[in-house]
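Entry type: protein chain
Record version: 2
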Amino acid sequence: MTEYSQDCQVAIVGAGPAGLAAACVLADKGVDVVVLDEQGAPGGQVFRAVEAVSAARPEDMAVLGSSFAGGIALIKRFRASGAGYRPGVSVWEITSAQESELAIGLVEDGVAQMLYPRHIILATGAMERPTPFPGWTLPGVMTVGAAQTLFKASGLIPDSSVVLAGTGPLLYLYANQLLGAGVTPQAILDTRPPSSWATRMLALGVLAACPGAMIQGLRWMREVKRQVPVVTDVTSLEAHGTEQLSSVSYRAAGRSYDLKTELLLAHDGVIPNTWLSMSAGIEHRFDPVQRCWSPQTCGAGMTSRDAISVMGDAAGVAGAQVALLQGERIAHEVLGQLNLARKPKPVSIGKSWALCRQRWLRRFLNQRFPPNAQFQLPPDDDTIVCRCEEVTAGEIRQVAARGCMGPNQGKAFTRCGMGPCMGRKCAVTVSELMAQVHQLPVSAVGHYRIRPPIRPITVGQLADIPLRSSTTATGG
């Protein structure tokens, strides 16, 4: 294993657009910055494996689109910046070492160790929203994001019997990519409710502010609808099969339908990946529009914990362009926090305007593709909510009706959220179900209490963590 210093000025967790942009700015200013990332190559989810695809599968670059190819320039800039980069690292804890000193627990090459930065930037990105519906745990049911990851990382694509279901921009982006790869999905089952007049009026304003993005999105949807059967206003989605998926049933326009398929890809949007920020003790709030939790931050990404910032989709899903702009802006703020710059560099008018336009676009997308109630609050009590412990929606409703007031108390009765995923696949749904029973806001019911380690680590690895040398700790 390569030997690294235990100290640095800034540690960035996540090598997506936000993390890379911030690292470039900080490294250019001579800051001792290191980027920690679980993946083996930089890029995050949006630019996953872009270097490998460009080198080994150039024909797929056109399929994945110009926005994907844009990641190459960012990664080249990052690699040339001089910023420290530690791929394949699992961060399992953020804690305080001595007094106000921060410490990051990580595992690298099977060895646990601690890193002591003066400032931490969390750029952990987003995760797909869980989509519990009857049969979603069957082999043959995957998320759209997982399927797209397989395409980017390995060039794997499904055959034409695949069915896509759910809602969100990624659903139609992936369908468009499949068409570009020569695969025509059997059907798209769109669970999005009809758009309101307010959303349509907002679309006109966003079209004026972000014509390129809006026109591109409209072209994608038009091309998909021209080649793929798209069923709208879909409800009662169910996956059927014994050992594996064999069919999908749904209701639309007051009638029931059934499709034979061995692969169903579901999607209901993305939400901030908050596990590390929650475990660090940062205050979070519940977003009633996007039905998810996000860290409470100021415009500069600062949080309730001193010397910890959150940016990009980890602070609130807004897309890659916003993440890039935020990364640069927050890097300048951190320079000021560390007294490495006299005052934060003001954001240029052009970049401020670009950030505003991208936020308008995201506001429109949030209204156009809202979270679906049939996934947030599964109506069928037999629907499994916690995949790890096989806890159903009915069991959650029952313990809530008996007086269980929140998801943390519910663990004692159901073990829900105590499996290998540590609640990542059920937390949002469990809070929603309990809030429904108690007729309370989700913010009043709360979220699982996330505690370290948030990634697997053995007792042996913990015991072998090297002690910090007194010379390093005192700076002598």
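Comment: Residues 209 and 398 are 48 Å apart (CA to CA).
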